[in-house]
Amino acid sequence: MDTLHPYRFRLCLSLAAAALAACSPDSPPTSSAPKPGESTNALGSASGSGMPAVQPAPATAVAQSEQTVDIIDQQGFDQAITAATARVPTGWQTAGGVNWNRQTHCVGNQMRLEWVASSPDGQQALEILHGFSWQIQGTQIQMNPCPAAPFNSTQSFLAAVVQQRRPGAHIVEYRDRPDLSQAARAATAQAPGGARMHFDAGQMLIAYEIQGRPVRELFSASLSFSEMQGNVVGGTSMVFAQRAPEGQLDPKVGDRITASIKANPQWVAMMQSATRNAEQRFSSNQRQEIDRWHASEMARINAQGAADRAAIRSRTNAEVAQIYANTNANTQATNDNIHRRNLEAVGEYNTYRDANGNTVRASIHGGQRVIRNPDGTYTTTNNPYATPPAGAEELKRVR
Questions:
Q1: Distance between CA atoms of 283 and 18, rounded to whole angstroms?
Q2: Counting runs of H as helices and runs of E as strands, what totals does the chain give?
Q3: Whole-angstrom Cα distance, residue 54 to residue 255?
Q4: Strand 93-100 vs strand 359-363: parallel, antiparallel, or unpaired?
Q5: What pLDDT, on the 0 to 100 scale, is given for residue 24?
Q6: Window from 128-142, 190-204, 254-268, 309-323 with minimum mean pLDDT
Q7: CA–CA separation, 73 vs 245, rounded Å?
Q8: Which whole-number Å values give the CA distances from 388 to 212, 383, 392, in the listed order?
Q9: What is the distance in angstroms between the CA of the first residue and the CA of the last residue of the chain?
Q10: What integer best gives the mean pLDDT of the chain?
Q11: Are the CB atoms for 216 and 246 separated by under 8 Å?
């Protein structure tokens, strides 16, 4: 099985993300996740590196034991099949799995993953919300069956998801994740047919209350956009949401779970085949409708329709390749960060970087501020008001 990134379980064949038309067949991620003020036994939030407002939970000296769980596709095929496995802390409960919306002709929106892993007391959880593929509003073309939506950035997309999923929640902070978007760009092959690719990633911290208890939740997503002949298609394979009581939100918990997810190759092959068949059925039906629509323009319409359908198939294949390339790149980036943090914990040091990109290690038992003096020596201090001498440089800690 192929290990997938926390972001990341990119099992669907094309891009996906959340829209706001709740009654539309191509509706945005919906779930039974709690709304502010409701009771719950599953609090959830998004995987990703911490934001300043997140208060990491205290580290424990003993590694938490884990258990392997299955993520099941109950309805996609003749019988239930394991779509993927994941490792969650022992005692955690899981719910949900892979569902299918066969009513939409936008093949990227047919496979819908809705899954949550929650702690025994329901105070912490990691939730995966289904993805969404769309055309940017104002650029849509009739031959593309994916719906039109206004989201042109990760920030606007996540704000819409939060508004629908957690109405009344307060957005504490949004942070761009250029590290993830750069990794996706580096891992993506040249788009065919002259299409231009753009990548954007970010995370949004929100706050609300459940039965009077303050909750913090971190939503994260990685979006890609492709533009060809003025038509812009955007999407994300899924959205991650990690939540916990205020002061206990630890993104490392979500990182460990999502980094452990492994797709079942048998299910991936079945899913790809089903998606290809759906696209072929749509193309066939579309061709018949065009034939009935205007016999006198048959030749012109068939030629144009064939070209558009070929472009859609070509772009779908390119986006699939990009999704799996992003998975590998994002997985490596997350694993590197986890490995570095583990080494820092064992060595009892923090890592700092100067303006030239050089790194320096400083003991956690010294000061939290590291200053490189003009003579090349280093000084550490905890004094927040200390002013570095002329010609000195204060190093930035690597998070």
A1: 25
A2: 5, 18
A3: 15
A4: unpaired
A5: 32
A6: 309-323
A7: 31
A8: 45, 11, 6
A9: 30
A10: 78
A11: yes
